[in-house]
Amino acid sequence: MWSCSPLNGTGRGEGPPLCPHFHAVLSVCSLLYLLVGVPVGLGYNALLVLVNLQDQSAMTMPDVYFVNMAVAGLVLSALAPAHLLGPGASGWALWGFSSEAQVTLLVLFNVCALVTLYSTALLSLDCYIERALPRTYMSSVYNTRHVCGFVWGGALLTSFSSLLFYVCRHVALQVSECAKMQHTEAADAVVVSIGYLVPGLAVLYALVLISRVRKEDTPLDQDSGRLDPSVHRLLLATACTQFALWTPHYLTLLALRGRPEDGHHLGALPLFAKDLARLLAFSSSAVTPLLYRYVNRSFPSKLRRLVKKMHCGRQSCSTDPAGVQQVLA
Questions:
Q1: Is the Cβ–Cβ distance between 50 and 30 less than 8 Å?
Q2: Using CA of residue 199, residue 111, residue 41, residue 38, what is the dihedral sign?
Q3: Contacts of 307 (CB under 8 A, 6+ apart)
Q4: Which helix (H) or strand (E) holds 114?
C-alpha cells in the first residue's frame, strides 16, 4: 500500500487528481481481502490438506498437486498481512521491519509463486500423460509426491540467486563485493523468466496437447483408469485462474524492474498498478481451494469421511455397509 503524500515535495508538484481515488480503491480492496480473503484462504487450504492427508490411499495425482498448491497458499495467506500492512504501506503502515525481514518475506513470496505456477504446469503435463497413456504409472501418486518435493527444492534454489541481489541491495550496501549488485534488474529478470515464462509455456503446450487428444476418439477413452472428466475442468479452471491472477504481478515486475521501491520516484498510476497486481497475486491463495472445493467431485465424499473420523475420535467407527457389501461380493 502507499499514500499520495510521498509524491509531494519531490520537485514534481502535487500528485494527480486521481491519486486519492486510486489510494481509496486500493485501501478498500486490501482491507476486504484481509478481512475475507485471508481467513477463506487459510481455512480452505488447511481443509484441502487435511481432507487429502487423512486418507492418503485415496489420493490421486491431481490431489497431490493441489495439496502442494494449498501448502503454498497457506504460506501466502500468512504473508499477506505483513506485505499489505507492513512498511510497503507508506500511507498507513501498522508496523515496520528490518531489512533482513523484508528480504525474507520477499523470498518466501517468490518461492510460493514458483511452487504455485510450477505445480499448475506439472499438473497440466501429467494430465496430458494420463489422458494419452492411461495406466502407464508415469504420473502416479508416488512419482508425483517426489516431483512436488523437487518443486520446493527448485523454488528455493531459484530464489537463492534473487536473494543475493536483494541482500546486496537492502543489507550489504557497504560490502565492496555488492557494489555491482545494488540494482534488482537481474533478480527481477530471473524471477520473470524462470517463474512465469517457463511454466506459462509449459501450461500452454500441455493444454494444446490435451485438446488434440480429446478430439481423437479411441478405445482408450473407455478405460476405467482414466482421470475423472471433472479433473479436466478443474485443470482448465485452475490454469486460467492462476495465470490470470499472477500475470499482472509479473508484468509490473518487468515494467518497473530496477526502479526505486520506496515510491518516491514513481507516479501514482505505476504504484497503483504494482500494488493492485500484488493484491491479485495474493488472492490466488484463496481462489484455488475454492475451485477445488466446487469442481472436484471427490471432495464432498472425502470431507464426509474426515468429519466422520473427527466425530468418532479414538473410538472405532462403524464400518460402511456399502464397503462391506463390496468386500463380500
A1: no
A2: negative
A3: none
A4: helix 99-132
Map grid coordinates 473410538 to a residue.
Answer: 315
What is d(CA 26, CA 21) in angstroms, rounded to the nearest whole number? 9
Q: With b meaning 16 or more CB within 10 Å and e meaning fewer, what string describes 224-239?
A: eeebeeebbebbbbbb
Model pLDDT for residues 81-107, shown as the tens digit of each residue: 888 876 555 444 555 555 667 778 888
Q: Determine the Cα angle at 277 with ends 269 and 193, to 5°.
A: 110
Burial of 302 (0-12, 13-18, 19+ CB in 10 A): buried
pLDDT for 222 beyond 70 = no
d(CA 114, CA 118): 6
Sort residue 223 into left (φ over 0), alpha (ψ -120 to 50) or beta: beta
Retrieve residue 316's grid coordinates: 472405532
CA dihedral 156, 137, 129, 194 (to 10 degrees): 10
Place of cell 501429467: 126
Q: State residue 171 phi and psi, 5-degree precision.
A: -110, -45
User: End-to-end alpha-carbon separation of the chain, Å?
Assistant: 63
Distance CA 185, CA 165 (A): 9
Cell of 104: 525474507
- Residue 220 parent element (H or E): none
Q: How many residues does the chain have?
A: 329
Decide: 213 and 132 in contact? Cβ < 8 Å. Answer: yes
E strand or H helix that includes residue 46? helix 38-53
Q: Do the beta carbons of residue 97 and residue 86 sit within 8 Å? A: yes
Predicted TM-score (pTM) of this structure: 0.79
Amino acid at 170: H
Cell matching residue 228: 475423472
